[in-house]
Amino acid sequence: MKHYLTKKIGALVLFALVAALPVSHVKGQSYPEKKLGWSLSAQTYTFKEFTFFEAVDKAKSAGLQSVEAYNGQELGGGIAGKFDYKMDAATQKAILKELRKKGVKLVAFGVVNGNTEAEWKQLFAFADAMGIQTINSEPKEEFLPLVGQLATRYKIKVGIHNHPNPTPYWNPSIVLAAVATANSDYVGACADIGHWVRSGLDPVACLKQLEGHVKSVHFKDLEAKSPETHDVHWGTGVSNVAGVIAELKRQGFKGNISAEYEYNWENNTEDVAQSVKNFRQILTAGSL
Fold first, then answer.
1. DSSP 8-state secondary structure symbol assigned to residue 282
2. pLDDT in tens, 220-244
3. Do residues 84 and 72 touch, judged by C-beta distance below 8 A?
4. CATH number, residue 251
5. What's the whole-number mean pLDDT along residues 25-40?
6. Helix axis angle, 52-61 relative to 269-285, nearest 10°?
7. How confident is the model at residue 286, as a pLDDT?
8. In a domain, 18, yes or no
9. What is the pTM of this model?
10. Taking each helix axis from N to C terminus, what angle separates 241-251 and 269-285, rounded to the nearest 10 degrees?
């Protein structure tokens, strides 16, 4: 009980410090992450109960200008079908046109895999046509050399994503071995900090282990250090959000950070908005 109260009090103190920051800290720089070469996006799986374009609208209302799509979400927006790398060129153009109208960029896609060489080639061609900068994936080991070749050819980053233990890439040492096999400067890690916490790992230590190889981030803050836990507003949980931000800055990370808020599924837009606000205030405060 004492440990629990200490954790809760620490989280509340951090949150209070963030909330108390004067407006001058963020005035004139609503998107401070851009100065570091970061894009802060929503992984549309956060809004999986809705269509892709409903998710885009929710991301925009939460203060985000870009999204990471996931394979299989109904498109909506007057466009038939699902978000799928096998969609035809006309559907691709329709999606990009609608995104331009909304002022939202599609910067990443994941977690998505190919099951054959042909599918991997199709996936990269699709990402290239859609202007996607990063594919987040959990490739089978046999496809790693091909993924590296395609990533280099298309100049598209690939982040090898970690789900919790005992999935194939749960530990950074496994990811590093896969990166070596892929043998491409464009292939590295998609650091899912929440899943590291679920696996009993320290997210800052994991980032240090992956230094120089972090291509993208899936951002979460969790209520407890346990496999059975849930998302909370960033900076109020156990994921050491301030430490993660500081470590990414120290490493000179450049790339996409996707908000994944996998809780309160039908009404979590405000949760994402508050998390984004907290992230930007912690980033701007610097010393927290």
1. H
2. 999 999 999 999 999 999 999 999 9
3. yes
4. 3.20.20.150
5. 77
6. 40
7. 72
8. no
9. 0.90
10. 60
